[in-house]
Amino acid sequence: MDTTALAPMTELEAINDMLSLISESPVASLDEASRVADAQIAMQMLRRESRDVQTRGWDWNTEEDLMLSPDIDGNIILPRNTVSVDPMDPQLDYVSRGGKLWDRANKTYKIGTKVAVKIVFLYPFEDLPETARRYISQAAGRKFENRTIGDGGSHQINEMDVLKAWSILLQEECDNTESNVLQSTTVRRIAHGRFR
Fold it and tell me: Degrees (nearest 5) of the Cα angle 10, 21, 165?
């Protein structure tokens, strides 16, 4: 096995990249990162940024026409990593509540039948496409520098670096959904929500 071959960024690499921005020593594992103050902050900020990005819903973390089945009590338990869920049938007024599908019209969890849904999932860092990992690490790194050095200090990651990573991520989304940025409502929604 060639250990020198390039591979997608890992969560540990992203954390160590963030630590290098403030001239801190790298950590050898995620377990060590959870015990070292600056590394722990970097890990928390990276994971927070990952959640924020994934919550928007992308081609790579969204499943359509996923069939969910009720349990023996008629409840539809949602996967633990569900961010949002919406029935494919627009007549059904079901939402996520307490980790289950809630029927708003009938005020009950007892749905009792299979439901096809569009669902957005949260995935671990290593399960994301490289473009998403790169943007998340750049955005989190920028925030980490701001928190540590302050807005007025000298930064290794500038806003243009973050914007470049964002545009590459958007381009991949356009390519994957076979649409252009002007036609895709998903991409428009994501693009407009980037800088709040």
Answer: 60
Same domain, 86 and 105: yes
pLDDT tens by residue, 117-172: 999 999 999 999 999 999 999 999 999 998 887 666 667 788 899 999 999 999 99
Residues 99 and 77: their CA atoms lie apart, in Å, by 6
Q: What is the pTM of this model?
A: 0.84
My answer on whether 73 and 158 are in the same domain is: no
pLDDT at 196 over 50: no
**What's the pLDDT score for residue 181?**
45
Q: Which ranges constitute the DSSP H helices of the chain? A: 11-21, 30-33, 37-55, 130-149, 159-177, 185-193
**111 and 130: one domain?**
no
Nearest to 43 by CA among 74, 84, 15: 15
Domain containing 96: what range? 59-121
> Would you say residue 76 lies in a domain?
yes
Structure tokens at 19: 């630590």
Burial of residue 54 (number of CB atoms within 10 Å: 0-12, 13-18, 19+) = buried
Please state the domain count of the chain: 2
DSSP state of 88: S
Contact 137, 46 (CB under 8 A): yes
